[in-house]
Amino acid sequence: MYSLNLNAGGQRELYERACGRMAQLLPGWSDAIPSDPAVALLELASYLSRMQNREIDTLRARHYLAYLKLLGQAPGKLTPARMLAVPGPAAPRPGMRFEVDGVPFEAADVPYAGACRVKDVSLTQGGRRRVLRADAPLVFTHEAPAVLEITLSAPLPPGMPVQLWLELQPEPGRIRPGESTSPPIRLPAQVGTGGARRSVPCRDGTCGLLQSGYLTFTSPIPFDTLLLRAEGEIEGEPRISAAALYPVVLEQRRTRSQCLDLKPPFRLPPGWEKDRFLRFFLPQGGGWREETRLFIRDGLVSGLPAQAPDTVRVAAAEPDFPALYPLRELPMETVCPEERGILPASLRLMVEEDGLWYDCPVCRPERDLTLPRGCRWDEARKALRFGDGRDFCVPRQGRLLIAGCVSTLGAPGNGAGGLLVRDGVILRPLAPASGGQDGEDGKAAFFRAAREMEQPARAVSPADYEALALCAPGLALDRVRAVPAARLGGAGPGVVVLAKPRSAAPLPPLTRWQGEQLSAWLDRFRMIGVPVEVRGPRYCPVEIRLRIQPSGPVSEPALRAVALRHTDGVTGPLDFGAELSYTALFSALSAVPGVETVRGLELRALSGCGRRTQEGGIRLEADALPYLDRFQVAESQAGAGLISSSPGGV
User: Fold this and answer.
1) Is 413 helix (H, G, I), strand (E, B) or coil?
2) pTM of the complete model
3) CA 201, CA 162: separation in Å to the nearest integer?
4) Distance in angstroms (rounded) separating the CA atoms of residues 128 and 111
């Protein structure tokens, strides 16, 4: 029975296969006697297997969610896309809606309504001064010192919190820094007007120019110039593509209904009531009484009684949004809002009981506590689920008002760009919208969690160290190799992690900051008693002398490209400690178009990192990375068939 697959087939098929297996294990056995206990057990096992397969094939979202709970995972939530924009002369108001390529965006954060803007951004480094342009970012090099100068269009008053956004183009292969990532450089700030400068404490949200973020500080003096001096070794090649003072945060969302509690003089925000259906409520007996005689005049709530209340609630819904639903006093009653892409955190509900309206929270109740009113958001069904008397009391017969609701498109909102214009307000996006993602269903979340569970949570084998190192926050590593310390002359247990940074430098070394970050990251995963050492590569230069007999025109760059694939680990595919095969290189060069015969080939290591093999190749040490340093080609006879693209290459 141990080899019988119970995951497929019907009951009869499973039973017949089980009987055939029993006949193999016990020669002479037959199922001709129905009273045989073995027959009964096989029939029962076949029936249970069929029922089990049917249940497995009909798994629903609630099953996946239960499994996710056991795995300690959660399905991905719907997230709106976001963008930052620079306002023009007229500042937008919070909640103001803009249409970008037919996609609605709303101003979520408008921190400053002044006219001060970033005028110029320049970088002084290595004796050169460069100015930021829309078509050319500011690229930092490794020359010191590096000073970033930002000039404002008007002085800012003292004591005002300053938010300066720096947009950095992402570097390919760099992992986003984490909360514990220490920045590679410091950005001390100096402010002033004219020639005087004063140092101010500055909070760097870019993690040392590794990512886009805010620089925040408060100046004790008025200023129109900000100087940022990079202290330390600059990591990679940061590229600043834009800078903005107090940018407007736009969120891809559509506020379908909204609720405000107003205090005297009961004034609505500008434009708040535009194109919306309004409902007014006055407090009464711990709840709210709807008042249909109130109206808006010049932005004020009018028609109030002689004795005005302390609070007036105004609920506004868009005309095409269904905000009212009936409640039938049923246990576990479900209400499905006729709106897609609802953000659950934005839901605000009111329920009617005996003519009065009460707030109805959307939450999870405390354990062993029954709340008088409330409901849950059922993520699987995208619906509101009320109680049955155990978690929430059953709502009375009446009505449900969705007083607050925001919807979003999620991932389809990414990438929207262009000028945003509305009611005389013009916004210029700093970068296309990004960050939006769709809600993840239970099935997709379950398989995603299963894949994540396969990722190493503890470094045991060399492959674990390599996989974890490539995920180190803040680093951009091109190649990683983990080897036992004994292979590199170490005594006792231990692992040496060899890492080559991703860089435009010809032979990039592993910097001190990179080594410290990688060591700190791997330390949390290593086994107790197993020391981990992080090293950069030892680069081994390789020389190739080639003599060919051409059969026609042959390109020297084509020969060099073939040689790189077999002898180079910097721009080529070879790894640490690779063996450079003479035979494979000879065969590959012989197959280059235009080469009739390879008359001579010499492969030589120019340092002590490798030793010569019997066939004429090179076997490198475990921490060495080869690179093609010299490549010389000569013809074995006259008759110029070699085309060279670089002087001295032949």
Assistant:
1) helix
2) 0.76
3) 12
4) 35
